[in-house]
Amino acid sequence: MILQHLVDKLRGLFRKTHLAREAEATAARLEEKVLALVDNMPTLPDTATRALELAKDPESKFADFARLIEADAAIATGILRVANSALYAGGLPAVKLQQAVVRLGMRQCQNVIVAIGMRSLFQRVAGNTRRQCVVLWDHAYVVASLCRQINRAFRLGFDGEEFSAGLLHDLGRILLVLADVESFAQADGLDFREEAGFLKRERSLLGTDHCELGGWFGEHSKLPPALIEVMHCHHDPSQAAKAKGLTTLVATADHMANHLQRGEDLADYDPSDNLGLCCLWERWPEERRRRLLDQLPGVMEEAVRAAAEEQGGS
Q1: Domains and CATH numbers, the chain
Q2: Does pTM surpass 0.85?
Q3: What is the DSSP secondary structure assignment for residue 122, as one 8-state letter?
Q4: Quick one: DSSP state of residue 312?
Q5: Between vectors from CA 113 to CA 157 and to CA 263, what angle results, nearest 5°?
Q6: 113, 118, 124, 129 alpha-carbon torsion, rounded to 10°
Q7: Per-residue pLDDT averaged across 216-236, rounded?
């Protein structure tokens, strides 16, 4: 019953009534292809979704978390690798899974698990489809790393969920690539120039947009509501209801990551164009804003470095 409700909701995402005939045909084809993915590639791995729940439980213990993930070789290896990376390593290496979990903390372990779960969605595809997914995956990791750096530097109060939100924000774009890479390319050139009307163009060509599709998939995967809202609203944080702060942070990081992925010089970055940032620091004192502007190039450089290191070998 729940699956049928989600399938019905997916059908509702593809609005074909007012589309041109060619676009309507594309939307119908995409709808059927995404529905086919439901049977073959429907959810993040069970371990990932269970880890998200366990990490939210204040009563959960490191040993419980380690037992949950030790049966999944890919996840266990990923956590050990990150725990022994330069970003977290200090002193003796972590050779046991529970040591690695303690070193990282359950929130960061959760992020590693979500990352591995996301990669599994496109692990078996090849050619241009895989290349497009890898580009989007790199972008997601840079956004996630920027969210973490800004959260840490300015004590925004998030506790790991900002990294997961950054990783997942563009999941709808990956789904569109997996459904039909050629139709996706017509709507999204992956040039990371997300001008006004970007989502409208997707809807006019595809019958839906990546925010709606990502939100649907989040519901289908039983992700936390805050992460689903980020996927829905990261292009317009004002529409967020319960996770506005988190959505605004992701929108801020997304704009910065777009600049980086276009290969443009850090010195040319104009934060005044970042609508997410304008919302994020709306109530900040002037001194705190100046400090962020001064630190911004370093924060962006560090985020790219950290993203590259954490992805190495994954």
Answers
A1: 2-38+125-311 (1.10.3210.10), 45-120 (no CATH)
A2: no
A3: S
A4: T
A5: 75
A6: -150
A7: 87
